[in-house]
C-alpha cells in the first residue's frame, strides 16, 4: 500500500561488539538502517538519512553507536554505566509522564495515581527529584526541557527502553478514558524524539493491555 514505511537493515560484518549489550550482556552487531516508502510491499523511495545502530544478537535491543564505548570498559566500569543508564531511564520516564499529565491543563485523579506510582518506583534515583521539580516549575513551558531529556536519553538507552517510555505515556493518556488532541499530538512527538519507527495504534494497544493487567492485579489483591 502506498505510504507504508519499512526499515531495511544491512549488516556490517566487520563490526561486532562481544558482550556489549547493556540489557543482557549479549553480542552486538552493527547495522545500517534505511527507511523506505513502499508501494505494494516493494521499497521505492528512501526516506530520511541512513542511520547506524548496534543490535543485540540475543535480545534484539538496539543502541546508538555510542554503545561502542562500553565495550572498552572494565566490568566495574560497565556496572557503573548500567546504573547510570537506569538513572537516565528513570529521569526520562518521570519528565515525560509529568509533562504528559500537564499538557491538557489539569490532572485527573487517575493520572495522579499513575504518576504517583511511577515517581515512587523512581525514587531510588536521586536525579529524578530534580527533574520532577523542574517540570512542575515550568508547567506548560516544560516542553523544551522534556525534549532535551529525550535527546540525551536517546543516546544512552536501547530502543526497547525508549519504547517502554512511549507505552507508559500512552497509558497516562488513556487512563482517564479519553485521548485529547494535545495528548495524541504529544505522543507522536515523543515517538519522533525517541527515534523509533512504530505504529501509534500498536503503542496504544500495548498501553491498553498493560492497563488491563494492572487493573486485574489490583482487583485480585
What would your notes on this structure say?
The structure is a single chain. The protein contains seven helices and four strands. By secondary structure, the protein is an alpha+beta fold. The chain has a four-stranded antiparallel β-sheet with strand order 1-2-3-4, with no helix packed on it.
- Give average pLDDT, whole number: 77
Largest sheet: 4 strands, antiparallel
Please write the CATH class name of the largest domain: Mainly Alpha
Q: What structural category arises from helix and sheet content? A: alpha+beta
H and E order: EEEEHHHHHHH
Strand content: 15-25%
Q: How many structurally independent domains?
A: 2
Helix share bin: 40-55%
The appropriate CATH architecture of the largest domain is Orthogonal Bundle
Helix count from the secondary structure assignment: 7
The strand count comes to: 4
Key structural traits:
2 domains; globular; alpha+beta; TerB-like; 221 residues
Task: Tell me the layout of helices and strands.
Elements lengths: L3 E14 L10 E12 L2 E15 L5 E2 L11 H28 L6 H14 L4 H12 L4 H12 L4 H16 L6 H14 L5 H21 L1
Antiparallel strand pairs: 1-2, 2-3, 3-4
Helix pairs in contact: 1-2, 1-3, 1-4, 1-5, 5-6, 5-7
Amino acid at each position: 500500500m502506498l505510504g507504508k514505511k519499512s526499515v531495511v537493515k544491512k549488516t556490517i560484518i566487520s563490526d561486532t561488539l562481544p558482550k556489549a549489550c547493556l540489557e543482557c550482556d549479549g553480542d552486538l552487531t552493527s547495522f545500517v538502517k534505511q527507511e523506505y516508502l513502499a508501494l505494494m510491499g516493494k521499497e521505492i523511495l528512501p526516506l530520511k538519512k541512513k542511520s547506524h545502530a548496534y543490535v543485540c544478537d540475543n535480545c534484539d535491543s538496539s543502541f546508538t553507536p555510542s554503545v561502542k564505548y562500553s565495550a572498552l570498559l572494565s566490568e566495574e566500569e560497565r556496572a557503573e554505566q548500567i546504573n547510570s543508564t537506569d538513572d537516565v531511564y528513570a529521569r526520562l520516564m518521570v519528565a515525560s509522564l509529568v509533562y504528559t499529565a500537564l499538557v491538557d491543563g489539569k490532572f485527573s485523579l487517575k493520572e495522579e495515581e499513575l504518576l504517583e506510582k511511577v515517581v515512587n518506583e523512581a525514587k531510588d534515583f536521586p536525579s529524578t527529584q530534580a527533574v520532577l521539580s523542574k517540570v512542575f516549575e515550568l508547567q506548560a513551558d516544560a516542553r523544551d526541557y522534556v525534549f532535551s531529556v529525550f535527546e540525551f536519553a536517546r543516546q544512552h538507552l536501547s530502543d526497547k527502553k525508549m519504547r517502554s517510555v512511549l507505552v507508559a505515556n500512552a497509558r497516562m493518556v488513556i487512563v482517564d478514558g479519553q485521548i485529547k488532541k494535545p495528548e495524541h499530538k504529544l505522543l507522536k512527538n515523543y515517538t519522533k524524539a525517541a527515534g523509533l519507527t512504530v505504529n501509534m495504534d500498536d503503542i496504544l494497544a500495548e498501553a491498553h493491555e498493560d492497563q488491563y493487567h494492572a487493573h486485574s492485579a489490583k482487583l485480585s489483591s
